[in-house]
Design brief:
By secondary structure, this protein is α/β, with parallel strands linked by helices. Helix content is 49%, strand content 17%. The strands form 2 sheets. It has a 5-stranded parallel β-sheet with strand order 2-6-1-7-8. The chain has a 3-stranded antiparallel β-sheet with strand order 3-4-5, with helices on one face. The longest helix is centred in the C-terminal third of the chain and has 17 residues. The protein is globular, with a radius of gyration of 16 Å.
Amino acid sequence: MIIVIDGPAGSGKSSTAKEIANRLDIQFLDSGALYRAITYLWLKSDKPDKAKFFENLPNVQLRTEYRDQTFYVQADDENLTDKIRTQTVAEHVSEIASHAEARSFVNNFMRELVKTDAYVADGRDLGTAVFPDADLKFYMDASLKERANRRYLEMKEAEKSVTLEDVMENLRSRDEKDQNRKNDPLKKADDAIVIDTTGKSFEEQVQEMIGIIKENTTIN
């Protein structure tokens, strides 16, 4: 079973999906972390020619695990869990994620992963491109100001120099790129349930979505 939560960056998808997974005792899949991992690997290799980078991408051994409320990502023998949560990675992730080769790699990885067990996954095109037949689809959104503040609070511990203005501009730019990219742009699936989190507490949005899940799936 797969429940998907799409929406723009900073709308609360990951934190909400994690909490839903914890409370319903199901698996959590962070698709954004997978794209961040690929972006980190590209940056680490000194931004090589993208064609060569994507040609070698299928050779990367990607592994994930969700435990202790943390989504762990490993590429080959390197733990990327903390390394992918920097402003530098955030500034380049849309650039890398816009390529068909990157999306194919990540999408195939996720489809294989969810063949067993029940998952809740968050992303931008899960309900439209990756899992069009998902058991349940949500689309989360919030104002740019609220999304930027959430992301800033998330990032400032890992990167002390980041400012709220930097984060807001990054989100504005990512929204533009995500909505207008050629391959699998960000958009709401026709059958997705919209959850606008502007002005809502975290508990309110989690309870609302859990109620919908229990009403529309076999998960209790």
